[in-house]
Amino acid sequence: MCTKAHCFIIPPYLLEKLAKHGNNSCKRALNDSARIVERRRSSLNNLLLRNEAEGNGDRFIYDSKNQFEQRLELVRKEGQDAIEDESVNKAYDTSGFVRKYFQETFGLNSIDGNGLDIISNVHYGEAYNNAYWDGDEMTYGDGDGREFTDFASAIDVVAHELVHGVTQFFANLEYQSQPGALNEHFSDVFGTVIKQKYLEQDISEADWLIGDSVVTEEFPGVAIRSMKAPGTANDFDTQPDHMDNYYNGMGDNQGVHINSGIPNKAFYLSCLEIGIDDCALIWFETLKSLWRTADFNDMVETLVSTAQQLISENRISENAVEAISNSFSQVGLTPIVV
Amino acid sequence: MKYQINIEGGFTGIPKQFEGEVKLDKNKEREMLDAVAEKREDHSHLRDGFTYTVKFTGDDGVYESQFGESNLPSSIRSFITDIQKSNG
Ligand SMILES: [Zn+2]
To answer: What is annotated as the active site (chain A) (predicted)?
Structure first.
């Protein structure tokens, strides 16, 4: 038996081995201890800038006024009426939709399960072609207007960034190589699930694109990524859809936005078999069982065991394990089902 | 001063590269070279942040460093923004 107190004095590599073999208390201790160290470090860094008080999952939208500054001016907070700025209103509405999805679907209180305030910065920087999660809050650029437009206005982008928060609090997947590609994968998975809910689409109507509404007509492509056909969303899209084409380079933190195409494709194929709601539940429960260094094989193994558990509880369709196994086999990750 | 800037990662995952030469007054050039040489701690929970690899070649040698979204010196950030705008 591994209690939390014991786990703190066990070296991380041993905790990782125990977590890998299904010891959830070790997994929790591993993630918690890393999180505590990280939070202490960032708290010291941010002592003069941040108020770390517990929140109620309230939304706060700040306007960066095209400067590279976060929390520059608070322009709308929970319960306040819409203002003239549509980016602000969109960030408010979409982050509320994401919060509501996790609350109503999984009973999750905000992104950490503990009522963390949801803080967004819009109009960040000048011609800034990006959106990011920094461990505490989201930040969105307006885009340069040539290739990209307002990142804060896209439901899938907002969901993607918020789910980086969910992943941080529930699995703390490190941001490099395969664990990093899984981190990106979970953000794309719930980005696409929540986008379909927001647009009231079913899986046959959905385009399975990520970031289609942040690219301009001049951009050489239709979106940033495609879950259905990785590698085809634009002229720069190098995502593989099979382990045979796995990216082994050092760029992009060893391909976190590249190799995520492989599990993304498997998720799409699984949804075709058992539907997006069963898949969302399996993936969410799997995320809660993963750990910092989990790789693709760990992911598939955990998906299968999670699906077996959910089938035994009559919460998902009976052919889920077969569907997941077939889908991952098609991308070169055949699981061993026991 | 010659510059070579690689930007990778980010939500889009689309790398960008800028290369060229600019004429800066001596004080400004010194400020930029010193900014590249100074290493500051990055924020490890950043997700989808850009990674900036910056290489400056001044009269007294080559200065190269890699930065994340949270530790990119503001002088280099505005230099990159100007370069991006002029490449538009
Ligand atoms: Zn991401």
So the answer is: 161, 257 (proton donor)
